[in-house]
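Lay summary. Proteins are chains of building blocks that fold into shapes, and those shapes determine what they do. In this project we predict the shape from the chain. Here is one chain we studied, written as its sequence of building blocks.
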Amino acid sequence: MGIEHELYESGIIIPPQTKKFKKIIIDLIRTTQAKTLVILGDVKHEVPGMSYREMKEIPKLFKSLIGRVVVHITLGNHDSFLKKLLHKGAKIHSSSGFKIGRYGFFHGHAWPSKELMKCDYLFMGHLHPTFQLKDKFGYTIIEPVLVRSEIYHDKVRKRYKISKIGRLKVIIIPAFNRLLGGTSVNVKKASDKLLGPLLKGNFIDIDDAELYLLDGTYLGKISALANYFT
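And here is the predicted shape, written in a compact code that computers can read:
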């Protein structure tokens, strides 16, 4: 939230997205009957500091959500001062993440905690993965995708100095706000700019990762997609 302020300073006027976000999230809560909402960091946009719009709109959105569901937030690299804005209601966790049962959640700009390495499934943000498709006329379509892969067990044991670990299946979640764009993981020059220690340190098998559109459509493995090496 708050990227509208940056766009405004560049001459692009977009109204606050709070009302839109609220509707989407509440509709999802009603549809799924969810009891818990997990946010993988970067609730706010401006770094460092905080814009006036963020100070105004972020508490407004969460006021409408807290009480409907239990809200968990793991801090992202954009979330300076977020604790001051949301000092009541939301459960705010450090950037090293937190776990619920065998599921672990972290933003991705910092190393996840040792406890998360005991999870079977890890959910990560930060990368904002997208899929880029170009037709023969040169028209490009870019869609947000879910990236499903594994974390190398041997690297985890060496890095964290532990022997007992979970299955460590990882799902990288795209950005919720479509204004943000992302990293086209099937384009070689874009995928070279992978973010966060797990990706930069080659802890995740990104070439063998599977891509899914948000409606569940399976696209295939990154290594098999035609324009990965272009």
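What the prediction tells us: The two ends are 34 Å apart (CA to CA).
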